[in-house]
Amino acid sequence: xxxxxxxxxxxxxxxxxxxxxxxxxxxxxxxxxxxxxxxxxxxxxxxxxxxxxxxxxxxxxxxxxxxxxxxxxxxxxxxxxxxxxxxxxxxxxxxxxxxxxxxxxxxxxxxxxxxxxxxxxxxxxxxxxxxxxxxxxxxxxxxxxxxxxxxxxxxxxxxxxxxxxxxxxxxxxxxxxxxxxxxxxxxxxxxxxxxxxxxxxxxxxxxxxxxxxxxxxxxxxxxxxxxxxxxxxxxxxxxxxxxxxxxxxxxxxxxxxxxxxxxxxxxxxxxxxxxxxxxxxxxxxxxxxxxxxxxxxx
Amino acid sequence: xxxxxxxxxxxxxxxxxxxxxxxxxxxxxxxxxxxxxxxxxxxxxxxxxxxxxxxxxxxxxxxxxxxxxxxxxxxxxxxxxxxxxxxxxxxxxxxxxxxxxxxxxxxxxxxxxxxxxxxxxxxxxxxxxxxxxxxxxxxxxxxxxxxxxxxxxxxxxxxxxxxxxxxxxxxxxxxxxxxxxxxxxxxxxxxxxxxxxxxxxxxxxxxxxxxxxxxxxxxxxxxxxxxxxxxxxxxxxxxxxxxxxxxxxxxxxxxxxxxxxxxxxxx
Lengths: 298, 267
Prior knowledge:
heterodimer; A: alpha+beta; 15-stranded mixed beta sheet; two-stranded antiparallel ribbon; 7 helices; elongated; B: mainly beta; four-stranded mixed beta sheet; 3 helices; 17 strands; 7% helix
């Protein structure tokens, strides 16, 4: 299959089950809401190294937020409910509570699992905190030097999918970067997904384990490293003329959201200078979710 | 829909706790007409006082001057009662869910010890709205009561959770011994507001004469009030959210951790 002269490999992206939470951060201005969201989603690229994957899902206008102020929707993904609860507590406590004018609300009220966040963070209030119970939900008011931090007691956690991906194989680095930027721009318009890596793009794709360092859980994806193409101990997957590869990883709340993001992203990445689009998988052994590129684009 | 029309105002209070959607939702017209009510100490039946149209519904509409009809909607959990006139004491007491709308005035103990649901009164209310009965530890524990007009003594006495909104002035002792929840006094209140309150919030959009046992804390814009502003806007009420409030804490006589927020715009 080809799209605008770019070869689409007949393969699939392999993704796995995760758990996700959606956090709505509001503030006095979009700038402060974004500041808190960026802090919260920092160092959250890979669940292997960071224990959580997170990203900004969308900017929210004031009539779409619980308190009528401008806000940002953040998605966080973890391997299990307990782990995600711990990360929520850390990150809301360190990056949202501390950020001027913010408040923090659950964005998945219908989710089956609930984890306590505000109900634990309230202890920062040293018994000067108070709560409000309104319309079936409890909120905590924690006194802080600036005024009050308002945070919802519990946040919803639902099943989700992590690790949707595709690789952009390009003639050179500028072409790869330009295609990746175009893909990220359209993928970020999809509701229910985040691209957890810096700028939505990862240059250091990995393989499971390592050939030479047995204790490593992941190491460089040598088959897609252009500088290793001629080595005897590397089975390159790169066609001739490819000199730079970038990967886009997408986590989503459901299968459909990831499909939509991959479809629009791959289409946008089919630009001059791109030779091939493929995807990372482990032969179906790692995750039960498969996104076949030809099926996505047909 | 079941329509009950009062034939004439009873000479003494009529206790009619059977006028509840939970009771009528499965009954035939004949069975509804035979439901027991108490005129003073005498047991009578509904059709001695009301003409009844309709059957088997959780929507009730009451016509006529029911100012002496007590306990309408007592303990109801679902459905809707619309009262096209006045209503007597204890409307919606112990209510757990559903909605009651009263077009006229209501007497005392509106929504007393309720734990859910919504009550809207377009007229005035008597005393003890959402309060605890005498000897009881807690008043309302959840739900919403909105009185467009004024209210009597001891609004929200010992309430624990829930929301009460009073559109016009309330009388003395609003929030007496309050344990939690929120009272919004759009028209302020008379004396001793928040007396002996332990916890909870009283919001006043009109300056109040406060007890000396309440201390001024700060002037700020409480974020949580925005949630109430949004919630109450669904009822057509406008609570100033993007505004500053003076926060007073008390009652130090208890000593309590309650708060009274007085809207600065009214100053």
